[in-house]
Amino acid sequence: MKRVFLPLLIIFTVLLTACGGSSGNGSTGAASNGGAGGQQGLTGGNSYIACPNNASSSAAAPESGPVSLTVTGWSSSPAEDALVQQNLNKFQQSHPNIQIKWTPINGSGDAYTTKMRANIASGSVADVFYLSTDMAPEYTTAGKLLNLSPYMAKDNIKAADYYPSLITPFSCKSGQVYGLPKDWGTLGVFYNKKMLQDAGLSVPSANWTWDDLRAYAKKLTKPGNAATSVYGLTLDAKSSQRWMAFLFANGGTVLNTDGTQAAFNSQAGVDSLNYYVGFRKDGSCVQPTDVSAGWAGDAFGKQRAALAIEGPWLIPYMSQNFSSVQYGIAPLPVSPKNKRADLIFTNAWAAYAGTRHPEAAWELIKYMTGQEVQGSQLHAGFALPSLKSLANDAYFTQNPGFKVLFDAATYGYADNFGPHTGIIHTKLDEAVEKTMLGKADAQTALSEAANQVNTELES
């Protein structure tokens, strides 16, 4: 996660289907060029989301009687679903006048987006719900989301309390906030400790390179029959949300600095994609489905692949399903241009503009994005906190692998490219898949995707 992200974690099924440090105050400041193509690190950049015409500018007063809130999101792993329910129960205990009806939608990614779009079209929308970065532009501009800024001002909650790149995707051009980021995730290289040891390989260093990753994947590959073969790396064919990290590390961007044109079909994009799909061409990586795995983390857990490029969502999945597998987490490798990059994924809690209980909805959003809940998610190993106040939590010292993921904040790029993020993801997924499966060369696939994205950007 995308989500996405997305967030959440196996709920980032968009991430799952892909194969896919802050300075002292937890932020590196504004992006130097302010453009969607240049957002790097925990920086804000500019919002490209047009503000709605009908947003309320004042906070509703609390209701005196009992209130019932319908709440929805996507269903995740059993362990994470249980944690969400536990935190919702705690909210009810501290707010006895507010009853919560939690009805998650089965499936994340496109399934969740499709269901939410149908609900909004019919006017049958939950009071409070998960909002992905793909959904935010459409619903914000259309006036379907509750403006949270008046409520934040009332309770002295500042946008600056959250990392800028995580709140920008849920804000419009004037700075009004329509969703608060619930958490975030990024990518690392998960490695099987025993497989590395058996292959005579040392733990990847902090400065390992693209060449090192290639060499590791080749050496860790153990050909055999369909049931016993082991591959160095597992990559899904539709994996733009893994490839983009290599694009950025190679000096490329997704869009130009003002977000008006595709830029991923540059030489940096072509070279990085050729490197990325090269793992499949040399036989050192496998698609999860080819080894009877549901996603890359599953292939890694089943020990059909020694390496996987995933995020914090894999940690609880391994604990629950493959607890005997000993693994570590390395940062993504440094490119030939002596640069490392990563992707930052997030999702938010938001409220329907037409809710009959806006103040109660705000109270729930405030709680579910507050320090107590985010701390519980961090300590459960599900996600990284979007609140700056948790940057120095002791959990990071106790869990160095998680710290590796958190440190990507200093060199990660937000997986958000303005109102057209969804179509950009779709077209890049198609380009990576065509190239990986040998249906087109990298330049042709990326140029075709760029033309399609540019048509969308101009519409």
UniProtKB/TrEMBL annotation:
Swiss-Prot/TrEMBL GO biological process terms: maltodextrin transmembrane transport; maltose transport
Where is the signal peptide, in residue numbers?
A: 1-18
Question: Single GO cellular component annotation?
Answer: ATP-binding cassette (ABC) transporter complex, substrate-binding subunit-containing
UniProt cross-references to PROSITE patterns, sorted A to Z: PROKAR_LIPOPROTEIN
**Which GO molecular-function terms appear in the entry?**
maltose binding
Q: Does the keyword Transport apply?
A: yes
Q: Name one Pfam family in it.
A: SBP_bac_1
**Which family does the UniProt entry place this protein in?**
Belongs to the bacterial solute-binding protein 1 family.
Q: What's this protein's name?
A: ABC transporter substrate-binding protein
Name the species this protein comes from. Answer: Ktedonosporobacter rubrisoli
